[in-house]
Amino acid sequence: MNEVSASELLAAFGADSEVNDLAKDAINSGAHLQVGIEPIPAARLRGILWGRVRTLQRRGKQAVGAEECLTRLAEMGERGLLVTYVDDRKRAGYYFKLYLDPHPLKVIGCFGVNILSGDEPIPGRM
């Protein structure tokens, strides 16, 4: 899967939640999207996210959706997921990381962190 349009991504969300609603609003408002092209095992993504959440907590950064996202990633085991970034910082919003099941396209988990534009995220490290 090389590209995902904003409309395809919006249709891929499941149940409404605070973080999903914030991410969908960002996408609807034209936030920049960056979709990964290589699936990564969910178990590996969960380990990375767990470490990132701990770092954010130590730094006092506001995050939404972390607990739910970690649970959903654990349920996926070794299934390969795509990682998508949604950058809504221009509207003083969140920097989101979405985990997508590519077949069929479905948002498995969504995590957002409220960072200032000067706090540049490192792709793959949020």
Relevant terms:
single chain, disordered C terminus, 126 residues, alpha+beta
- Calculate the terminal CA-CA distance, rounded to whole Å: 22 Å
Order of helices and strands: HHEEHEHEEE
- Major beta sheet summary: 6 strands, antiparallel
Number of helices: 4
Which secondary-structure class do the elements indicate? Answer: alpha+beta
Q: Averaging pLDDT over every residue, what do you get? A: 88
Rg is 13 Å
Gross morphology: globular
Structure description:
The structure is a single chain. With 126 residues, this protein is of the alpha+beta class. Helix content is 37%, strand content 28%. It contains 4 helices and 6 strands, in the order ααββαβαβββ. Strands 1, 2, 3, 4, 5 and 6 form a 6-stranded antiparallel sheet that branches. The model is unreliable at 122-126 (pLDDT under 50).
What is this structure's SSE topology?
Layout: H1 6-11, H2 18-28, E1 32-35, E2 40-41, H3 42-59, E3 62-64, H4 66-76, E4 80-87, E5 95-102, E6 105-114
Helix pairs in contact: 3-4
